[in-house]
Every structure is written in structure tokens, then in C-alpha cells.
């Protein structure tokens, strides 16, 4: 049997749930922002650990950068 497909343009299709779209986009922006902060913090901590030496001090620096970003952003 043939299924019924809507052949109308997308603009005339089902109503969009704009609140859900905005919620999803806000979540995407938050994940992108905090992912970028984490990557930058890891790179800075790795460079610090390489040049100064010590994994403990690099870990502390990583945590400090993440906490500072939490309060600043």
C-alpha cells in the first residue's frame, strides 16, 4: 500500500516548537563554551607541566583555570 506523504512545502508543514529549538541551541552553546574552556585549560596546564615540571602543579593549574572560568563566564 502506498503511504501518504505530505508534498506541501516545509514552510506549510507541521508547526515548529520554537521553545524546544531555543532550548537545544542554548544547550549546544553551553557545551561548546565549556568544551573550549576545558581544552584551553588542558593545553595551558600541559605547557606549564612541561616547562615547570610536575604533574601535581599542572593539575592544580587546570583546576584553577576551570574555577576561574566558572566565575568569569
TrEMBL record:
Keywords of the record, alphabetical order, are: Membrane, Transmembrane, Transmembrane helix
Q: Where is the Cytochrome c oxidase subunit IV bacterial aa3 type domain?
A: 5-50
| Matching Pfam families | COX4_pro_2 (PF07835)
Tell me which Gene3D superfamilies the record gives: Bacterial aa3 type cytochrome c oxidase subunit IV
Keyword flag Transmembrane: yes
Could you name the domain of life of the organism this protein comes from?
Bacteria
> Is Cytoplasm included in the keywords of this UniProt record?
no
SUPFAM superfamilies in the cross-refs: Bacterial aa3 type cytochrome c oxidase subunit IV
Residues annotated as transmembrane: 39-72
> By what name is this protein known?
MFS transporter
Q: Which organism is it from?
A: Paramesorhizobium deserti
